């Protein structure tokens, strides 16, 4: 995550008053530290729960080191999983946990991202938002994908999840899409779709809403 992307996250957090955020996939932990720092600056007790593989501990720097360096360890709850974040999401559902924001930046396959959306939906509060990353990414150059069918290797699976699952779901509205990112809001199953849009109109100005780009 770059600084300009973190600034977009800050707008989202403040627009929706996010308190319980979830991140799927953190790699070195740069995105985690950015988001935890924003939550910390907003006051009250706000926490980012984040999940990645056990191998993330071996990276240099790793999340624990960065969180300690930037003073946000108290705002980060990290889980290191042996296989994927999906089993931990199952545990969260069993525990009755709820989140008002999710940053989905892991898996990137049709199976992982599609099932993740199904599980996140159960964990996301009403009016919560989900941010998809790597909308254009394909696995065609990944060694593990070389035996896959060509169309699966060359298709942007996250974008397919967004288009075929999220945007066709009766309880989700598109807030915006830009580049590799797409933001959707969970709502009640009603025909009115203006809730998320009204927040952004108020935040950035009604006349600019139509042409709004997150990086501006």
Characterize the structure shown.
The two termini are 16 Å apart. It is built from eight helices and seven strands. It has 216 residues and is α/β, with parallel strands linked by helices. Helices cover 38% and strands 21% of the residues. The protein has a single domain (3-208), classed as Rossmann fold (3-Layer(aba) Sandwich), CATH 3.40.50. It has a seven-stranded mixed beta sheet, sandwiched between helices. Strand 4, helix 5 and strand 5 form a beta-alpha-beta unit. The protein has helices at 3-15, 30-41, 63-69, 86-95, 110-123, 150-153, 157-166, 194-204, and strands at residues 20-24, 47-53, 76-81, 99-104, 124-132, 172-178, 181-186.
């Amino acid at each position: 995550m770059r600084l300009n992307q973190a600034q977009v996250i800050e707008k989202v957090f403040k627009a929706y008053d996010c308190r319980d955020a979830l991140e799927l996939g953190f790699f070195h932990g740069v995105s985690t530290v950015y988001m935890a720092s924003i939550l910390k600056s907003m006051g009250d007790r706000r926490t980012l729960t984040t999940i990645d593989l056990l191998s993330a501990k071996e990276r240099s720097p790793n999340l624990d080191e960065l969180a300690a360096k930037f003073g946000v360890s108290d705002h980060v709850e990290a889980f290191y999983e042996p296989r994927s974040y999906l089993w931990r999401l199952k545990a969260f559902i069993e525990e009755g946990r709820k989140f008002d924001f999710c940053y989905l930046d892991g898996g990137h396959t049709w199976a992982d991202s599609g099932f993740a959306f199904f599980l996140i939906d159960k964990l996301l509060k009403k009016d919560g938002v989900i941010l998809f990353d790597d909308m254009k990414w394909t696995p065609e150059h990944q060694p593990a994908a070389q035996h896959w069918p060509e169309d699966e290797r060359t298709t942007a699976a996250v974008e397919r999840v967004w288009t075929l699952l999220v945007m066709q779901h009766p309880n989700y509205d598109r807030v915006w899409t830009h580049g590799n990112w797409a933001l959707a809001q969970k709502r009640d199953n009603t025909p009115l779709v203006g809730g998320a849009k009204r927040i952004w109109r108020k935040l950035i100005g009604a006349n600019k809403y139509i042409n709004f780009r997150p990086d501006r």
